[in-house]
Amino acid sequence: MSAHKKLKLEHPSLAKRGQGRFKSPLIPPDVTSGGKLLSVKDKKYLWHPFTQTSEWEKEDILVINKGKGNYLYDTKGRRYLDGVSSLWCNVHGHQKAEIDSAINKQLKQIAHTTMLGLTHPTAIELAEKLINIAPKGLRRVFYSDSGATAVEIALKIAFQYWQQSPRSSLPATRSPDINRGGALRKTKFLTFSNAYHGDTIGSVSLGGMDLFHSTYRPLLFKTIQAPSPYCYRCTEPRRVQCYEPYVVHSPFKSTTNNVNPPCLQKAESLIRKHHRSLAGVVIEPLVQGAAGMITQPKGFLKRLRTLCTKYNILLIADEVATGFGRTGKMFACEHEGVSPDIICIAKGITGGYLPLAATLTTEKIFECFTAPYEENKTFFHGHTYTGNPLGCAAALANLALFKKENIIRSLEPKIAYLKEHLKKFYEINNVGDIRQCGMMVGIELVSNRATKEPYPVKERVGRQVVLEARKHGLILRPLGDVIVLMPPLSITIPELNKLLSVTYQSIENVTVKPGPEQYLKKAGW
User: Could you tell me the pTM of the whole model?
Assistant: First the structure.
């Protein structure tokens, strides 16, 4: 059946032809050279991630076919500021000449070769450069192709490490805790509520987001879960405001420096209680991204590092979202001088060009897997596209740009601009909390600011704001009713101004419902 016939059957009132093109303003003429309507074909053949199909099939979908700088272009030539870095991964903008050139150069050599029993130059060079910029003590690089696989690898490495670790590595004060096979009973992981580490079964087991993962609970292994430091929605009966350097403070909050918040006390209690069985503590440093940009009190991460060292537990840092400059430093761990035992990186590693990820470990961990083959201590894990040469070439060009353009230092005025101008959002009554860590921002919308009551789920307020912003040339994606701002690090101050002003107007238009003349007024930036 032709695309036009399908459209005519499903939407007879919209399927009028005129000189070979659809005239309806509701169905855009996204036509290829072959005359096929892309939006119809999309709805016929594709299944999109994290997307409710019943809504998608009714929507006037956006088809992106080009990117240039910090902008995306649809098939009708309309331009949109990329407000979420194409899902938190684009660093230097689209069509960055240096990365384009590096990929093209690598294509003339080889597009892919396995790393099972072989190696190649770009994987070797990239590993060296990653070790040079990573937190101190990380010495080995294991490649994969997504954030979830990087975490899955960390999970398996940590688990196997403790099965193969010599007992002599245990503190002298610890009594032996041995199972029937002689291995240490360090097989569990401490995780945090609201955590998100990916969508493979192992990474989902480490997560704490029921919305995404409750369906799969029978498939998952159990973890020991500590409360996340969600300060805005702290449920402690005796509320003490933690020191939150990553929250844009409003007149509606008090600010008291609480260096030992209740959530940290509970995590410490669980670590003390279960340390003999804990293989690792897994955390998103400073910011729980997918949970709604939930930021941690100052010192939270550093204290966890101290506890893991004290009780001989591996600290696993999931820097998939926070790595490569997003927080204002190359890695979020640097803010508190923390070196994890294992770090997971992806997203920004190639500048947002190609799927590549890496799991970095200490030499001590690596050595536990080095033995005669017959001892079966090999790490039996790998992916077809592990260490893909094109991805590694893009990553090398990405890291070169960080140095050449002094990206980290260039972020300082942009972060300051964001922090100052985000305060204005509190003028909107339905803005409950604003969280910012570097270039990562979450604006939480509520039905009632005084009670912090959320909007009913069916209202899809966050979704409404995103669709409103799209009308004015800005691409966003919400996390429930948290509006996320995470632009490419290459965004300019004028572009930041557009990002903020359109977001402000879109939130105001959806939540306040002003008339046209009020909506078109200047936002006052």
Answer: 0.88
CA distance 146 to 89: 11
Tell me: the pLDDT tens digits for 350-360?
999 999 999 99
Q: State CA 275 to chain mean position distance.
A: 29
Q: Are strands 314-318 and 64-68 parallel, antiparallel or unpaired?
A: unpaired
Lowest mean pLDDT among 13-22, 150-159, 427-436: 13-22
pLDDT digits (tens, 9 = 90+) for 364-410: 999 999 999 999 999 999 999 999 999 999 999 999 999 999 999 99
How far, in Å, CA of 190 to CA of 227, rounded?
10
Q: What is the full DSSP assignment across 98-118? A: HHHHHHHHHHTT-S----SS-
Hey, which residues does 314 pair with through a beta bridge? Answer: 280
Is the four-CA dihedral 263, 154, 477, 442 of positive or negative sign?
A: positive
**Per-residue tokens: 34:** 């072959």
Pairing of strands 440-445, 482-485: antiparallel
Report which of 413, 477, 412 is spatially closest to residue 486, judged by C-alpha positions: 477
Cα–Cα distance for residue pair 144/83, rounded to 1 Å: 27
Q: Chain centroid to CA 411: how far? A: 19
Q: Which residues lie closer than 8 Å to 59 by C-beta, 6 or more apart? A: none
